[in-house]
Specification:
Low-confidence stretches: none
GO cellular component, one term: plasma membrane
Pfam family, one: Nucleos_tra2_C
Number of domains: 1
Number of helices: 7
Shape: elongated
Distance between the termini: 32 Å
Structural class: mainly alpha
Number of strands: 0
Organism: Vitrella brassicaformis
Protein name: Concentrative nucleoside transporter C-terminal domain-containing protein
GO molecular function: nucleoside:sodium symporter activity
Strand content: under 5%
Mean pLDDT: 94
């Protein structure tokens, strides 16, 4: 299923951020949902995991910080649609930069999650 595929795809990202190995697939799934859907859906799923007690405290802290931010595929359209009217002659430049901006935004959130995990 899509859940398992995304969980396995983002498993290394979760491991690198310092998530305990028992929680890496779940946190990887949450990161994948954040990137491919949006952060609101991912936070709802995180709340379900926390309520059910499926994550360790450290994984909860890291996931909370990793999921924040407006860097997903849906935001690419929002960025192009919002910025291109301000500079219509630079629309081609915007479309080439939005994917890099999404990667950079996710990396910033993941680095914040690493620091939060270090102190948890």
């Amino acid at each position: 299923s899509f859940d398992r595929l995304v969980g396995y795809l983002m498993y290394p990202v979760a491991c690198i951020m310092g998530v305990p190995l028992v929680d890496c697939e779940r946190v990887g799934y949450l990161i994948g949902i954040k990137v491919f859907a949006n952060e609101f859906v991912a936070y709802l799923k995180l709340a379900e995991f926390i309520t059910a007690g499926n994550l360790t405290k450290r994984a909860e802290v890291i996931a909370t910080y990793a999921l924040c931010g407006f860097s997903n595929f849906a935001s690419l359209g929002v960025q192009v649609g919002g910025l291109s009217p301000m500079a219509p002659n630079r629309k081609k430049d915007l479309t080439t930069l939005v994917f890099s901006a999404m990667i950079g935004g996710n990396m910033a959130c993941f680095m914040t999650a690493c620091i939060a995990g270090f102190f948890s």
